């Protein structure tokens, strides 16, 4: 397993040097560390969680033109590494449930899937999540905030992938929902603190925007 973890790390590091979309190795590394921590607290299979976390973005279809190409790449990688078929199935199932894509919110059915999904979502809230949101919006040429435009709900995957109205709108379309969708108790505890940070941030943001502070 340790050899497989090292190889998965090498693949993920290499993957991000090829990519310019604003995703980076450090996101993967934070998700991996968080997943290992949650796995230990929750009694989940640590190795499965670590490998799935390392590969979750390599498999993500938003980086490929063809549907299913990312998951195929991970499948090939695991086959080349002579991974047994039970482990392969488990890792692929975990990766498959990690993404939050608008309304298509697939519910994870194994403890390992819950752990990795929580780890990925925790990186979207708190100070880091706030910073990532503004980086993402800036990279796409979106505004920081557009007053008077309402947030979208019940989005399809396509609508979610298209531009949001502004970075601040993304808080109301996704970030503020994440805490109540945590799948593990340990993930929820961390999410609560990070969620409070989002609320404090928004309160300060709007009072500065309105000139009240
Ligand atoms: P991941 O697949 O890692 O969950 P995404 O690719 O959906 O993440 O998004 C990467 C980061 O950018 C996340 O922190 C997410 O909250 C943020 N983000 C996604 N869409 C938008 C958007 N339209 N505006 C601002 N931030 C966004
Ligand atoms: Ni991610």
Major sheet attributes: none
Total helices: the number is 10
Q: Please report which band the strand proportion falls in: under 5%, 5-15%, 15-25%, 25-35%, 35-45% or over 45%.
A: under 5%
Query: N-to-C terminal Cα separation, in Å?
Result: 54 Å
Mean pLDDT over all positions: 89
Number of E-state strands: 0
Write a brief caption for the model:
The protein is mainly α and 213 residues long.
Layout of helices and strands:
Blueprint: H1 2-17, H2 25-42, H3 46-55, H4 69-80, H5 85-98, H6 111-122, H7 126-139, H8 157-161, H9 167-173, H10 185-209
Helix pairs in contact: 1-3, 2-3, 2-6, 3-5, 3-6, 4-5, 5-6, 6-10, 7-9
Describe this protein's structure.
The protein has helices spanning 2-17, 25-42, 46-55, 69-80, 85-98, 111-122, 126-139, 157-161, 167-173, 185-209. The N and C termini lie far apart (54 Å). The mean pLDDT is 89. It is globular, with a radius of gyration of 18 Å. It is mainly alpha-helical and 213 residues long. The longest helix has 25 residues, at 185-209. The protein contains 10 helices and no strands. It binds adenosine-5'-diphosphate (ADP) and nickel (II) ion (NI). Nickel (II) ion is lined by residues 27, 31, 56-57, 120.
Features:
213 residues; binds nickel (II) ion; single chain; binds adenosine-5'-diphosphate; mainly alpha
């Amino acid at each position: 397993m340790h050899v497989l973890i090292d190889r998965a790390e090498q693949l993920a590091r290499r993957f991000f040097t090829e990519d310019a979309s604003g995703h980076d190795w450090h996101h993967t590394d934070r998700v991996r560390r968080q997943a290992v921590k949650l796995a230990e607290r929750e009694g989940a299979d640590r190795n499965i969680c670590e490998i799935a976390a390392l590969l979750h973005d390599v498999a993500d279809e938003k980086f490929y033109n063809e549907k299913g190409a990312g998951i195929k790449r991970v499948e090939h990688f695991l086959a080349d590494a002579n991974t047994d078929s039970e482990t392969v199935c488990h890792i692929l199932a975990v990766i498959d449930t990690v993404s939050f894509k608008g309304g298509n919110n697939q519910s994870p059915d194994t403890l390992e899937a819950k752990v990795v999904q929580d780890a990925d979502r925790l990186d979207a809230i708190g100070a880091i999540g706030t910073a990532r949101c503004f980086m993402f919006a800036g990279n796409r040429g979106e505004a920081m905030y557009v007053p008077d435009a309402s947030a979208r709900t019940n989005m399809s995957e396509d609508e979610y992938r298209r531009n949001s109205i502004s970075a601040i709108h993304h808080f109301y379309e996704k970030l503020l929902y994440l805490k109540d969708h945590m799948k593990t108790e340990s993930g929820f505890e961390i999410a609560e603190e990070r969620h409070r940070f989002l609320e404090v941030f928004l309160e300060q943001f709007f009072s500065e925007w309105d000139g009240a502070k």
